[in-house]
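Dear colleague,

Following up on Tuesday's group meeting, I ran the structure prediction for the two-component complex that the binding team flagged. I've pasted the input sequences exactly as they went in, so you can double-check that nothing got truncated or mislabelled along the way. The C-alpha cells for the whole assembly follow below. Feel free to forward this to whoever is handling the docking comparison.

Inputs:
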Amino acid sequence: MQMTYLQAIGDALKEEMRRDDKILIFGEDVAEFGNIFGVTRGMLEEFGPQRVRNTSISETAIIGAALGAAVTGLRPVAELMYADFTMVAFSELFHCVPKWRFMNGAEYKMPLVVRCAMGSSFGAGSEHSNCVESLFMHSPGMTIICPTTPYDAKGLLKSAIRSDNPILFCEHKQLYQTKGDVPEGDYTIPIGVADIKRPGKDVTVIAVGLMVRRALEAAEMLEKEGISVEVIDPRTLVPFDKETVFNSIRKTHHVVIAEESNKTAGIGAELAAMIQEEMYDELDGPISRVAALDIPMPYNITLEKHVIPDAAKIAQAVRAQVERWK
Amino acid sequence: MQYTAEFLTKIYRDLYSVRVFEEKQVELYALGKVPGHIHSGIGEEGSCTGVMATRKEGDFVKISHRPVGAGLLAGTPLETMFAELMGRVGGNALGLGGVLHMTSLEKGMVGFSGTLGCDAPVAVGAGLTIQMNGTDNVSYVFYGDGTSNRGPVHEAMNLAAIWKLPVLFVCNNNQYAISTPTSFSSPVPNPGADRAAGYGMPSRVADGTDPLSVYEAAQELVDYIRAGNGPAVLECKMCRMRGHFEGDQQKYRDLSVVEQWKDQDCVAKMEKYLIDNEVLTAEEIAAIRGEVAAKMDAAIALAEQSPEPTPEDLYRNLYAE
C-alpha cells in the first residue's frame, strides 16, 4: 500500500514497540507533540509516558542515557531532532556509543538506535541542514543508515531496532512527505545491502539520501540522450556494500558519486579513494564527485538550491564522463 | 551508628583491598608493565568503600578514574582487572580498553568512558532501566570535583531529576583537577553538593577519609532513592595524595599541605578505630593485610601469564553478532 516515508518510520517504531516492551523512545518533543515533523504522533497515547518520553534540551544526556539504558537491558530509540545536533553530543556519539563494546568488553551490547533528521529543507540555515554521515564514518563501530524510500525506511528501521549494535539512522527531511509502496505486515531489510534503484550500463551513479531521487531524475533525462545510468543507493554507509557497487563498476567502468554534504572529506572522498584502490583496473576514467559547495548552508533559498547538487548537475557529471572518457 | 564487628571487618577489608590495588598499580607501572598513564587513588579509598557498602543485588555502578580499584568492590575478578591494566588478552576488554575500562557488566558495572563526565548520563540510562524494571535498585556514579564542571554532568543531573530516576551522584572532591585547585574551578565551596539544589536534589557532604562517615551519609541518600524519590548527590572530601598521573612533579601545589593530610589517611584511621574499639587486634589486622596482599599477588601472577592480544583480537569485540 502507498504511504509516506514519515508514516513508514512511524509504523516501524509502533510495530516494533508492540512486539518488544524493552523498546522505548525518548528525545525532545517526541511525546505530546509527536516530534516536530510528526513522526511519533499518537505514540504517547498508545504506549504511555514510560515508553514515550520527552526530555529536557539535553542532547548529551539523551545519548548518554540511551547508551546506559542499552547496555543495561533496554532497547532505546533516541531522537536528536536535527542531525546537526549530533554535534552537541559528538563526544558521546563518536567516542562512547560506537566504541563502548571495544573499550569495555564483549559483555556490553548496544541495542541503540539514534534517529535524526538530516539535510536541507528550504531555508533552515547552516545549523539545521547538515548531513553528518561522513563524520561518523570516521568512528569505527557505528552503523550508519540513510534510507530514501518508505519501503527502505520501514524495513531498515526494523532491522536497526532489532540489532545489538549502535545505529545512526538518518532520515531526510525532504523525503518525509514522499510516498511509495510498502507491503502489509512485518518485513525487514538487511543492514549493509545496497539497492540498485535503476539498472543501467554506461555509468554507475552512487547516490546518498536526497541525491538518490535527483540521480533518478538525472537518469531519466540522460536516457533521452542515449546514456544509460545505473543508480545505486547504498542505503547503509557503514557497513558498505562493496559487492553491489563493484559489480556495477565491472559493467559500466565509470563512476559518479552524488551526495548532499560538503565535498571536502565527504562520503564521496572516501568512496572514490576506496574504489580506485580496489577497482583501478576496471575504471575507464576518473571518479567524479557531485556534492554541496564547500560553504555553510545559506539561508536564502535560491542560494541553498545553488549550493546543493540538483539533477542537472548530476546529469552534467555523467555526461562529462561519457563524452570525455567513454 | 552501631555497627557489627562483621560489618566493620568487611569495610576494613574492602578499604584495604582498594588500597593495595592502587599500590600494586603504581608498582606495576614503575616496572613498565602498564601502558599509558595511571592515576593513583591512594588516600581516596574511603569514598568508594563507604558508598559501595550500601549496594545490593541488581544495583548498577559507574566508578571514577580514581581509584580504579573500586571495581573490585563490585566483584570484578582481580585477575581480569590486572590483565586489562597490563594490556593482556585476559582482560575484560582483551587488553584493548585499559586502565579506565576495567569493568564487569555481570557485576553491575555499566562501563566506563575515558572522557570524564560523559558517563554521568550513562548512569542515568542505567537508572532508567531500573525504573522501567520497577525495582528499588540504585545506579551509582562516581565523578570528581574537576568533572563536576562538565556539561554532561549537569545534563545528567537535570534529566535524572525530571524523570525521578534512582541515581546517586557521588562527587569525590580531592581538591585538584590535574593542576587546577577546586577553589579556582568551582564558584561554590562544595562542587558536588552545592549544585544539587539547582536540580531539586538532596545532598550530603561526608568526610571522604572516613568510610563510616561516607557510609552513613550514603545510606541516608540511598534509602531516599530506593523509596522512589529520585536522585541525590553525595560529596566526599579528601585530598589527592599523589600526582595526577605517575611522574607528575606537582610544582603547582604546596606538598607540605599534602603531607599534613597523611594524618587523615583513611586506612590508618580505620585501623586505629578498629583497635581502639576492640573490633580487631593488631594481629588480626596484620592477618587481613596478609590475606589481601596474597590474593592480589596471586591475581597479578595469573594476569601476567595472559598473553598479549593479537591483531585478530582487534576485531573480536567491535560488533556484537
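The radius of gyration of chain B is 19 Å.

Cheers,
M.
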